Amino acid sequence: MKLYGALISPFVRKVAVVLAEKGLDYERRRGGPGVTDAEFLSVSPFAKIPVIDDQGFILSDSTAIVCYLDTKYPEPRLIPREAEHYGRAIWLDEFADTIFAEAGLKILFNRVVGPKLLKVGGDEALALQGEAELPRSLDYIEGLAPDAGWLLGDHFTIADIAVASMLRTLVYVGYGPDRAARPRTAAWYDRVAARPAWTVIDAQEAVLANKIMPAA
Ligand SMILES: N[C@@H](CCC(=O)N[C@@H](CS)C(=O)NCC(=O)O)C(=O)O
C-alpha cells in the first residue's frame, strides 16, 4: 500500500495510525501543497492529501479511506457497528475534520506550512481568527474526554484517532494538550499516544517535527 502525504497533516496521520493499528505495511510517498510530482498528481486530481494506492485501488479523503480500510481489513474494527456508537464515531471524525480542523489549520498553514515549509508567507489575520475559534472545539473535547478508556467507552475507535490526530497537529503551533487548562483531554490523549501504533507513527514523524520545532 502507498500513502501519499506528510504526517503533519491530521488527515494523513489519521490514515497512518489506522494502518498501524491494523498492522498493515505501507510506503509513504510525497504529496500535498506545493508537490507537483506527476506521480502525486496522477493519483490526486485535486492535489489533496491523503490518498492511498492499495494495489492499484486509488482513494482520496481520510474518512473514505478509513471506511474502505475498516471494511477490507476489519481487524481490529475501528468503526463500530452498533447504531449509536457508529453514529457517534462518524460525528466525532467529522467534527475533527471540519470544525476543529478548520480552526487549527488556519493557524498551522499561516504560521508553519506557509512560512516554514513552503516559504510563501502566511496570513497572520487568518491565524488569529483560528486562535479565536479554537477554544470552542478544545472545550468541547474536554467535556467529552472520559475518566478512563476511550471517547466511545471501552472500544478504541476512529473517533479517538481523528480527534487526537488533530490535537497532535496543534502541537506544531503551541496548542497541543494542555494539562493545566484541560486535564481530562490531556489524560485521554496520553492514553491514545501510548498505544503501540501511535508511537510507531510518532517516531516516523519525529524527523519532520524536529525540523519544524528544533529541540531547545
Ligand atoms: N476532508 C479531507 C481533507 C483533506 C485536506 O484538506 N488535506 C489538506 C492537507 S492537511 C490538503 O491536501 N490541502 C491541499 C489543498 O487544499 O490544496 C480528508 O479528510 O482527507
Summed up:
The chain has 216 residues and is of the alpha+beta class.
Describe this protein's structure:
With 216 residues, the protein is α+β, with helices and mostly antiparallel strands. 59% of the residues lie in helices and 6% in strands. The N and C termini lie far apart (36 Å). The mean pLDDT is 96. Bound molecules: glutathione. Glutathione is lined by residues 9, 11, 32-33, 47-50, 61-63, 97. Residues 9, 11, 32-33, 47-50, 61-63, 97 line the site of glutathione.
Show the helix and strand layout.
Blueprint: E1 2-4, H1 10-21, E2 27-29, H2 38-43, E3 51-54, E4 57-60, H3 62-72, H4 83-118, H5 124-144, H6 158-170, H7 183-193, H8 196-212
Parallel strand pairs: 1-2
Antiparallel strand pairs: 1-3, 3-4
Helix pairs in contact: 1-3, 1-6, 1-8, 4-5, 4-6
Bound molecules: glutathione (GSH).
Glutathione (GSH) is lined by residues 9, 11, 32-33, 47-50, 61-63, 97.
What are the segments in which pLDDT stays under 50 over at least 5 consecutive residues?
Answer: none
Q: What would you call the structural class?
A: alpha+beta
Cross-sheet strand order for the largest sheet: 2-1-3-4
Q: What order do the SSEs take from the amino end to the carboxyl end, as H and E?
A: EHEHEEHHHHHH
The CATH level-2 architecture of the largest domain is identified as Up-down Bundle
Mean pLDDT: 96
Q: What is the strand content?
A: 5-15%
Bound molecules: glutathione
Largest sheet: 4 strands, mixed
Count of the domains: 2
| Termini separation | 36 Å
Q: How many extended strands?
A: 4
What's the CATH topology name of the largest domain? Answer: Glutathione S-transferase Yfyf (Class Pi), Chain A, domain 2
Shape: globular
Helix content: 55-70%
- What is the CATH class name of the largest domain? Mainly Alpha
Roughly how many Å is the radius of gyration? 17 Å
Give the count of helical stretches: 8
